User: Fold this.
Amino acid sequence: MSKRIDVKDLNVYYSKFLAVEDVNINIEAKSVTAFIGPSGCGKSTFLRTLNRMHEVIPGARVEGEVLLDGDNLYGPGVDPVTVRSQIGMVFQRPNPFPTMSIRDNVLAGVKLNNTKISKGEADVLVERSLQGANLWNEVKDRLGKPGSGLSGGQQQRLCIARAIAVEPQVILMDEPCSALDPISTLAIEDLINELKDQYTVVIVTHNMQQAARVSDKTAFFNIAGTGKPGKLIEFGDTPTIFSNPTEKATEDYVSGRFG
Amino acid sequence: MTSTLTPVRKRSALTKGQLPKAAPYIVVAVALVLGAAILALIGFNAFGWGIVSGILFAAGLVGWSLIVEGARKAKDKLATCLVVGAFLVALLPLFSVIWTVLVNGLPGLLDPGFLNTSMNGVTGAFDNKTVEEGAPLLGGIYHALMGTLLITVLATLISVPVGLLTAIYLVEYGEDRALARAITFFVDVMTGIPSIVAGLFAAAAFFALVGPGTKTGAVAAVALSVLMIPVVVRSSEEMLKIVPNELREAAYALGVRKWRTILKVVLPTAISGIASGITLAIARVIGETAPILVTAGFATTINTNVFSGWMASLPTFIYTQILNPTSPSNPDPSSQRAWGAALVLIILVMLLNLGARLIARMFAPKTGR
Assistant:
């Protein structure tokens, strides 16, 4: 239940502005890959191209190929909705649906698509997804309560439960811990470690310790200056990137000399 | 061992002089007495007394504060007086209107049969009898009430789908295209259309399409829709705009199609605001007189078919009862009926506004742990 992603010569544009230039990267199945780099270097933009969320923004477009187990996401006739049901996403700020209960939030991917599901199956799915997001014990007695009543960290885990309930191949996380306290962050990091047994996880983070803790591979993005496109500088095993990087820029960044 | 005592002072060094707590009440009492005295010199009336006392109160309180507390506090008190004064000035007409309509309308409203009889067959002779011999007042507003309700319901049925779908297009699909900008512009223009023009438009359209002299409830409903649609578009658009984009993205990321996202995430999130906006739009058109006069005419009989025949409505009922009393020699019964109808209309609008609040509360996203 997980697929690999290979990106070939990817350029990402906002209208005429080239935001990310010429990215080539191979993301292994059942691994955690972290994207690090200074603000505005295009990490999040690039992440969003991996499940075609980028094009939700008016004027945004992409050149190049993103292959999910060999199938090009940007091939002619590919339905972005199909892509997104295979590649889930967790956002920076927890965003449970305010009109729905905790249970309905978990079932959102199923219910919003009007897929028929029996109550028994739904119960099983809710429990499995919430267990998977390490949230079950905290909310099992109040599944009918609104999701917005949970704490920030719980909301974020609810969003992860919602993402894994549709059983995607890949889960993208866009700075999932940047709005959370250290305890909640720890809970999410533990969860990411468990998730990689089943899913391919790609995480954008500003926190280098976090990248070092959770990821198998790390990609460093950088930007030459304002208005210039972001580039993938270096991609490799996490220990190598942090202890023995090839590029000077990577070393400067991970050692805290800039950024 | 020596200890230095804190010097005993009467007042903290951090404060200036303060007015006693009862200061405003004292000033009010003085201002009222002085106001009454001044008014007594030039001829007493309650309205003038209020105005003069108000000015005296503001001047007195600010002056006293200036002497005791200093300039900053005095300015603060002046601003408070101005704000409260403006609030009272704004409320005065409202209470005056409600009071007048209540006093004049209650006798009509409490008249038995007022709500459940029409004016069918009620002639000037009956009204003359009522005035001259004390016979019970005949006639009521049932036909007008039904007309108003039916026309408004039909107008709502036309306006809400059109207005809501327009708003959805503008917010979700428009993307600031030329078409979206044109729609926004024309909706703004439509907001400013005088209601009589809307009425004439609907009348002319039906004259051309159906035949000359077509005056039915449906024509009136179309005229009201012209007035209602821009209000619905505007309020729904604002409500849809404030739905956070994150929720849309969350749904897209789950592999949900755009139309389903709009239907099941965006609309439910915004529904409370949309519903109260629609209710306020209804309240806005329910009292329209001119467009109904030229599109549905006025009737004295009950007509519950909006597609044929002239139809009465509360505003036109009031208008005709005042302008052409049923009995020209004894207009009092007619004006009593008109006031009663006005009271009913105000009650309807109040109920709609209360309804809007209830709906907003009912649909509001739930919170709680």
Summary: The radius of gyration of chain A is 18 Å. Residues 5-95+170-254 of chain A form a domain with the Rossmann fold fold (CATH 3.40.50.300). The longest helix of chain A spans residues 119-132. The interface with chain B takes residues 51, 53, 56, 58, 81-82, 84-86, 88-89, 91, 93, 95, 97-99, 108-109, 111-114, 142, 145-146, 148-150, 159, 162-163, 166 of chain A (CB under 8 Å).
